[in-house]
Design goal:
By secondary structure, the protein is of the alpha+beta class. It is 23% helix and 35% strand.
């Protein structure tokens, strides 16, 4: 079943992608055409649907640009049956889930039509990791106070300010301060997790960590791996995160401006399998 979502309640529209009126119809048609073409390795059909700023991340955390994708078209991992979408004016997010595999597509409205800006796969763990987690790091400098990225304009600066505030709340285990920075439909999907987490899930986890004293600083923003793409009143951030232990992750986040506030709507985080764990050479 596919769900099309605006800013409110999802509406079920059948067992395969159907097309709503207006912009919703156009972008879902583009997404369906893209997924069909990818499934048959039809490079000629895929090519015109890819944005010039395309960022493509596979489930192993390898990230490609448009040229690299068209040189060697990656294999299809999922179809588009059961996809869920959210429309934010000139940005539309479409997500497909199948078991532990998840694919986020972010479409941008361009003068020539809808173009695929982000394709990001996440394969989640079958079960939670064994063993005790490392002790939490209680001080957060990067990203809470400074980041190795210079915003290009006031829009990017506003997003980074919101991001720093929410990560400061994570460090403190302060769910009340964290929540205002997220849309109600927020979802985070990580390779290290076993299930996607909703906004309510994250609030419950922050409260649980605070009670247990296990709240701590998030991973750091890696230098020279950040891109911020503004489309209308939305910003897509692609970056690499360095955990305090373990392998780095390739991350896509989407922010929208709602009632004058920057709110994160989705975050997908894929462990880079080919990378060495932090601290190892």
């Amino acid at each position: 079943m596919t769900a099309v979502m605006g800013l409110g309640t999802p509406v079920a529209i059948g067992s395969r992608p159907a097309f709503a009126a207006g912009a919703g119809q156009d972008v879902l048609q583009a997404d369906h055409a893209f997924m069909q073409a990818l499934g048959t390795s039809d490079k000629a059909a895929v090519r015109p649907l890819l944005d010039s700023d395309l960022i493509w991340t596979n489930w192993e955390g390898k990230t490609l640009d448009r040229t690299q994708v068209l040189e060697h078209l990656p294999p299809s991992t999922l179809g588009d049956a059961g996809s869920k979408s959210y429309t934010y004016d000139q940005i539309v997010t479409v997500r497909t889930d199948s078991g532990k595999l998840h694919v986020l597509r972010v479409w941008a409205k361009r003068p020539s039509g809808w173009r695929l800006l982000v394709y990001h796969e996440v394969k989640q763990a079958e079960k939670a990791g064994a063993g005790s987690p490392a002790p939490p790091v209680k001080e957060c400098i990067n990203p809470c106070k400074t980041v190795p990225y210079k915003p290009k304009n006031d829009t990017e600066a506003g997003v980074i300010k919101s991001w720093q505030a929410l990560e400061s709340a994570v460090t403190a285990g302060d769910a009340q301060a964290w929540a205002p920075h997220f849309a109600d439909e927020f979802l985070v999907i990580r390779s290290s997790g076993t299930e996607p987490e909703t906004k309510e899930d994250r609030i419950a986890n922050l409260n649980r960590q605070k009670r247990a004293g296990t709240n701590g600083a998030p991973g750091q923003l890696a230098p020279d791996h950040t891109r911020m793409l503004t489309v209308g009143d939305a910003v897509v951030m692609s970056c690499r995160t360095l955990p305090h232990s373990g392998k780095p992750s390739q991350v896509t986040r989407v922010w929208i401006k709602r009632s004058g506030r920057w709110l994160m709507t989705v975050s997908v985080q894929t462990t880079i399998q080919a990378a060495a764990p932090v601290g190892e050479k």
